[in-house]
Amino acid sequence: xxxxxxxxxxxxxxxxxxxxxxxxxxxxxxxxxxxxxxxxxxxxxxxxxxxxxxxxxxxxxxxxxxxxxxxxxxxxxxxxxxxxxxxxxxxxxxxxxxxxxxxxxxxxxxx
Amino acid sequence: xxxxxxxxxxxxxxxxxxxxxxxxxxxxxxxxxxxxxxxxxxxxxxxxxxxxxxxxxxxxxxxxxxxxxxxxxxxxxxxxxxxxxxxxxxxxxxxxxxxxxxxxxxxxxxxxx
Lengths: 111, 113
Hints:
The structure holds two protein chains of two kinds.
Chain A: E1 4-6, E2 11-14, E3 19-25, E4 33-38, E5 45-50, E6 55-57, E7 60-65, E8 70-75, E9 84-91, E10 99-101, E11 105-110
Parallel strand pairs in A: 2-11
Antiparallel strand pairs in A: 1-3, 3-8, 4-5, 4-9, 6-7, 7-8, 9-10, 9-11
Chain B: E1 4-7, E2 10-13, E3 19-25, E4 31-38, E5 42-49, E6 56-57, E7 64-68, E8 74-78, E9 87-94, E10 103-104, E11 108-112
Parallel strand pairs in B: 2-11
Antiparallel strand pairs in B: 1-3, 3-8, 4-5, 4-9, 5-6, 7-8, 9-10, 9-11
């Protein structure tokens, strides 16, 4: 089982819709979680960190549920420019320097 | 501030050839990483360097070697390229370890024939 699992999608949503992605992790000792955004044929870039208390940045909200071992990303009022792949990231086992990336969830916002 | 730079951007090799992918960062980061990204597999860690002078294996180190030349530079070497190493390679850096944001370079698209 992969340490971080995501539904690869694609999620096709109309402009203005609210969409949510979940990501499950298997290592209960994981400490740090992030959401990265990756545009087609580009490098990943940090979207937001995920804190135990939740984190909101404009239209984006990230939540961490340690009891069920998942993190979520909610995007409100989707824009065409939100079309991208969203990577879930957790700190892995075997040393604090390692992180594990999920395979990514592809979002396509349609007009 | 260039961030993380990688060279080359594209490369085509024949099976058995060798090459070195170069990576440099100008953010004074301690930790640097090499990943490969394949369709359906996500980003997988090849090697990382927690700090200057140290390197450790990641998830998929076979067929690769690395050198942390100094604090700025971290190179990845393929000694004898194989078609299975066809991939997109990303270098990344972070200020210190997995608790911090990683900044990625633009990637190297490698094809091994």
